[in-house]
Amino acid sequence: MEDCETRLLKLNAEYEEFAYIVSHDLKAPVRAVNNLAAWLEEDLAGNLPGDSEENFRLLRNRVARLDKMISALLDFSRVARHELEISEIDLSQKIEVLSTSLTTGKNIIIRQSGQVPVFKTYAGKLTYVLQELLQNAILFNDKTQTEILVTLQDETDNIRIVVEDNGPGMAEANLPKIFTMFYTSAPKDTMETTGAGLAIVNKIVTFAGGQIFAENTSGGFRVTVIWPKI
Amino acid sequence: MNEKLVNILLVEDDEVDIMNVQRAFKKNSITNPLFIAHNGLEALEMLRNQIVPIPQIIILDINMPQMNGIEFLQELRKDENLKHLSVFVMTTSNEDSDKLNAYNLNVAGYILKPLSFEKFITSVATLDSYWKLCERL
User: Keyword set for this entry (chain B) (predicted)?
Assistant: First the structure.
């Protein structure tokens, strides 16, 4: 009879093998296709009909997308296994730093309201969640001036983080899908997103024992994260 | 100055990746002799039987059938005649464990194979400036 520990070790080994396959074995042929296409294009430069040039562009774009999707799959599989360090996080300061890096040189305002004490948690994971939510609010915004409000609230056992934007929101019918892996409302040609971000965020929040929900507001979109204190 | 071009041995099993290195060499106008082994075993045999002139530099893929890159490095470091060779590890993997394994075996550098060929050309240019230094020593 196998005991729990042996089974756990086995599962871990299986996972490591899976991660290895994803990062090496799947990525290698993708890179080969990308290289071969680039070389064909380079060697035929000047002799390609317009249609073929456009097809090469599409080929490169889709291969790059596939590469990103493989990386995202790897990130998704790593949620429960990587970055498990517990450390202190100062949310206001973290949001400030993220805001600066995301808004520099762009017409974007990120405001903060509310204060929560510094607390111990999966700081790396929570940072990823914040970054992803802010990035999404920026990426899908259709206004000349993007406005985002992050509200922090200290509850007894949880920290409530609300990210509201003035973007177009989401068709109500599609709301249930937004936490699904690779679901995106952006056109497939867009390279910035493969639709993995919110799926990974959802997995992280669930892993941490929290909750996440999204809704349309009168002037935009709102995502609420309930993140447990340890 | 009397410069002698250093010999380079590429240990790589993927034909397209071999072409990748050859094209990057061409793009950077690198004319160093480039020898190719398709796995770790073949590379060791080529080195030990001096089928190739002893290269000063080895570019090593990690993920190969028939003795992978890490196993090849372990063998190389155990061999009195070969353990001094400079090895650059080249792989798709961004896994920390692979990096640590490689660094523990005393490698000169670690090159991540990027998706884009342009980025790879830049990496190879960096390598080139390193072995140009070796040629002057």
Answer: Phosphoprotein
Task: Tell me whether strands A158-165 and A220-228 are parallel, antiparallel or unpaired.
Answer: antiparallel
Report the number of distinct structural domains present in chain B: 1
d(CA A125, CA A204): 7
| CB pair distance less than 8 Å for A38 and B117 | yes
Flag whether the ipTM exceeds 0.95: no
A38 in contact with B, Cβ within 8 Å: yes
Report the residue of chain A nearest B21, measured CA to CA. A35
Quick check: B2 pLDDT over 50? no
Boundaries of domain holding A70: 4-78
| Farthest CA pair distance, chain B | 42
Summarised one tens digit per residue, pLDDT across range A46-65 is 898 989 999 999 999 999 99
Of the three residues A78, A98, A131, the one that is the final residue of a domain is A78
Residue given tokens 């296409």 in the structure block: A37
User: Model's pTM, two decimal places?
Assistant: 0.76
